[in-house]
Amino acid sequence: MSNSDEELRRRKYEEALEVKSLRRIIAAYFNYPEAAEDDVKRYERSFRRLPVAHKAMLAHLPLKYQKLRRCIDKNTFFIYEMLKAFEPPVDMSQEDENCEHVDDGSCGHFHSGDRDPCACESASVSGRPHSTKSGEVCEEKNGNCCKPESANFEGSLECKTNTHKDTSDNITDIKDPKSLDTVTDISSVPPEPECESHDGLDSMPHFHVPLVDVDKVRCVIRNIVRDWATEGQKERDECYGPILEELKRNFPDRNKESPPTCLVPGAGLGRLALEISCLGFISQGNEFSYYMMICSSFILNQCEVVGEWSIHPWIHSNCNSLSDADQLRPVSVPDIHPASAGITEGFSMCGGDFVEVYGGPTQVGSWDSVVTCFFLDTAHNIVEYIEIISNILKDGGVWINLGPLLYHFADMYGQEDEMSVELSLEDVKKVAFNYGFQLEVEKTIETTYTTNPRAMMQNHYFSAFWTMRKKPLATSIQESMDE
Ligand SMILES: C[S@@+](CC[C@H](N)C(=O)[O-])C[C@H]1O[C@@H](n2cnc3c(N)ncnc32)[C@H](O)[C@@H]1O
User: How far is the centre of ligand 1, averaged over its atoms, from the C-alpha of 173 (Å)?
Assistant: First the structure.
């Protein structure tokens, strides 16, 4: 077999894996209502087992369960509209053959394509403490990645500025340009969600996935609050506020003619990257979870008015609620209209694995700043992350970080082969110094992550925050000669 045949075969194989991964993620979204209904049925079964006298005291609960169903319908409606707007970047109609022909054993199980996007929240959405470190490795290497050479913002095919509607709506789109005309007509949204109506969704994959996948959908819903609801403002102030302040302080003379650039790896649902863009940076979010990208694309590109959607993010946990009303409360999304937020031209979201997309030679010395927020601990090898951050920064460029070190691949019971290099903060800094960084600001900031602000239990992190500057090469060389 020639090299080009081999390359073609490899590409087909990778695309097939990506399709498989995406199918499973879409199926997880479709499984959401059924899994939620199963929970409600379970609550009802428990209620029915109560002695008559106890039932009489709690006679309001059956009504609560009906209300829960309506909340699930509302969330499902949001999810279905989001899926309708989604244009898969790969050909979803292809058979699994390409994958099955490769006999390396990796096709015998699903490639769900996603590490847990919410692995920083140690309480599960169902209220049970658990480790959400799924360890499933993303295979989104090609289809939706901004290749390093195409990460030049405007005009790139894979990482495209969306120009749907009019020019004032320019905003990032992670999809194929042909999808840019797909705008959800919100005027047709019925007042009460009709979740039975699957218009445009029938061709999408519907099959059962493990509950752990549905948990990821619930995590995305919590992330929506963090990034796109007024309820998440306090958390954003804690996490994003200090980062934005540092960016302003380090780049005081931002000018519209030639804005500084900023990369946000592990951008989640994209709010931080958007806020950075609004400060006057050419900002690029990088994210490899399709769970996240499907949702961020919908909010960034399709939402047309503030509060367009009402969701019920906290319904999936009966634990630590002060009242049923608290648990059932709606949250309006988005809290701002992204397209009119004042973004700087060139804002983009780039799908793909940070290491794959930015680890190559074309990205070297490209960025004025890199911002990592709750991202460093997603690494299999944090040293590799730091090396890449150093490589892609210009000399004198700035790296701002905030987050804990809750290594996502630590404690992977039963998956001993998962690589996970788990360093202390002291060692992380040592590695950074070795890659030519010097520490300019360092503090600890208490933050939450996708926490229900009204719950009786809230996890707090004492997050490490720093600003490091990549020393100019000459300084680095001189210092190593002096040692
Ligand atoms: C804990 S979340 C933080 C999200 C966001 N920065 C925030 O503060 O809300 C980590 C994010 O990084 C993404 N991620 C993990 N590993 C990644 C990788 N290798 N490349 C790109 N994104 C990654 C996850 O999918 C997830 O969305």
Answer: 18
